[in-house]
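Task: complex structure prediction.
Instruction: return structure tokens for all chains below.
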Amino acid sequence: MIDHIWAALVMLASWKLMLTITICSVYGLFVGAVPGLTATMAAALLVPFTFFMDPLPALVAIVTMEAMAIFAGDIPAALVRIPGTPSSAAYTDDSYELTKQGKAELVLGVDVVTSAIGGLMGAVVLMTSAPLLAEVALTFTSFEYFWLAALGLSATVMIASTDPLKAGLALLVGLFFSTVGLDITLGYPRFTFGSIELLNGVDFIPAMIGLFGVSEILRNMGSSHLQYPITSVKAESIFKGVAKTLWKYKTNMVRSGAIGTFIGILPGAGADIAAWIAYAASKRFSKEPELYGKGAIEPIVDAGTANNACLAGDWVPALVFGIPGDSITAIVIGVLFMKGLRPGPMIFEQQPELVYAVYFSFIIANILMVPFGYLAIKVSGTMLKVPRNILMPAILMFCIVGSFAINNSFFDVGLMLAMGILGYFFENNGIPVAPIVLGMVLGPIVEQNFMVSMIKSDWDLFQFFTRPTAAILAGLTILTWLAPFIPTILRRFRSAAA
Amino acid sequence: MKISDTVVGAGFVAAGALIIAGTLNYPSLDGGAPGPSLFPRILGALMAAFGGLVGAKGLRNRDTTEDVEWLLLHKNTAFINAMFVLGGVAAYILLVERVGFLLVGALLLFVIMWRLKVPTLKAAVVAVVFTGIVHFLFAKIMRVPLPLGILWW
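Output:
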């Protein structure tokens, strides 16, 4: 093993690889920090470049880029209330509220450090116990996957603040969008209205850009002075108070690192879901849940740790079993095939140094995140000095081109526009937009596993509760729905007893 | 632009009904078990139910100022600005393939900035420079095939 580790370190020590890491760090930070550009899109755009690279630089490029992008998504979330990537959506409101309170430096400092810590936690899990954890995930059947997705959906409604009814409606809209396209049982086209583009469903990325980017631009059109409140971010102060905050929430970080890694290992669930679930768990265990969404630092610590911890977790099933942990690792598997490598158990025997080098690249990327993140914050702070009447059209331009870049399709630009109008209308009427995105991500997982479970159990609903893990997940889901009523029920019991 | 919860709720009830109606002709699985229609129907029913509850809540807490907001929309600067953005993006989609990204993109930026009261010269310079930067990043570095239109590079 030592030989393989040494070989991996030697491979990483080349100046070409260091240059790749540096360029991809800057690329990831840029893509993550610009609203409307996502890590998935960045990974997809990297693929043509990786075609000209050896396998290791290709994989290292993706690892570095995604780690930096997921962190950098926090920057616009804090500064302009637009998550740079979906992974920052869960705590965007809290980040922005704190910025409005003059705590932008603390938020960004916590963002960068928790991202690095979360990433390192995920990397350690990937290195030490990846095969074991992957085996646990692979024991799951469609029943467990259904309940896990249902738990995610339930958490979405319950954390979506003040009005679970409206949050539920938004979630249902997202789930409906996920049904558009060919269905999984018969391949029958649903709600496509004769459109070829819709046969593959509603594309998640233009929808996200529309819901979070365009709707935000439309909302900003009402500001009389059309400038952001002047918030100067002193990059040199971003680490002030971070250690104290993180020490206070050290347990949260451990919990969220574990949640993030675990969610990452589960096939199909990525950093965005990890952030949402960590946020929900954080709110459940917090002493101050009433502050969530109004400017609490605690959920930023939790979700910020979880989304970066998730990234390494996502690679576990991808490397060990060839099953993508998220959309980016799906691209990674494509890159491996392109290089003539078949992901799976054999890669550990045939190319162990490659696997170790991937492990180490996670560590390098997350260590570099602190200085690179600092520089990114230092540069991005100037964004606020740009007048809003110039900044908003500029962001609109990135939204348009970012939407187009996914599939090189103008249909996606139209989709982005439609979603922007929907998001604008929803937000103005007190309906949160984030659950729409969650519904779109989890919808196919819920439906597919529900249908598979129903068919294999011969339409016996009882089977959803017979497997122990499924039963536990079902219990947790039901508990999530009952949680808001539990204090009331307990109070009534107590008053009746008195 | 806020509308009453009653109307919002009614809209969702209608949307739920439409979703269910849209699935009526979907095929079933072998043996008559529901297939492609099952999940959308559940969603449609839940949407109608949740919409009904929101609507009922809206009826109880009716706010008449929302009706006045609708009558004053044509004087609402935010609304008109938003329409400029929406119209601008729609025009971009229609024109960009024929005319090209550089021209349409710069024009879109200029029109919106001008509407948002950026001085004309400044808006023109920023529009041209920024569109050039975006073109360089996406078309040259990221290799996104932005339409060339009437320009040749």
